[in-house]
Write a structure and sequence with these properties.
By secondary structure, this protein is an alpha+beta fold. The protein has two helices and four strands.
C-alpha cells in the first residue's frame, strides 16, 4: 500500500507541475452508508468495500474528454488499479 500511495503522490506532483491539479484527498478504507429506511436514517456498512475508492483527484480540464485523457495517464493501471472520471457539478 505504501508503494501505491507513493506512486499517486508523485503523480499528483506531476499534475500540479502541469497546473491542472486542484486538490486531492486520501480516503480511509472504512466507512458507512447512511440510508433512509422506514422513515429513519440507519447506518450500514458499505455493501461492497472492494468497490470503494481510496482517494480522489480534483483537476482542471478543458472538457470531459480532456479529463479522460489525463486519467489515462494514471501510473497504477499496471498493478490493477481502476479510475472513475466524473465531472463536478
Amino acid at each position: 500500500m505504501k508503494s501505491i500511495i507513493a506512486i499517486h503522490t508523485n503523480w499528483a506532483k506531476d499534475l500540479a507541475e502541469k497546473g491542472i491539479f486542484i486538490n486531492g484527498y486520501g480516503l480511509n478504507g472504512e466507512g458507512c452508508l447512511l440510508e433512509l429506511v422506514e422513515g429513519e436514517i440507519v447506518t450500514k456498512p458499505i455493501p461492497y468495500p472492494e468497490m470503494a475508492f481510496g482517494e480522489l483527484y480534483v483537476i482542471q480540464a478543458e472538457s470531459f474528454e480532456a479529463a479522460l485523457e489525463i486519467g489515462k495517464q494514471c501510473p497504477t493501471f499496471s498493478i490493477g488499479d481502476k479510475i472513475e472520471v466524473r465531472e463536478l457539478i
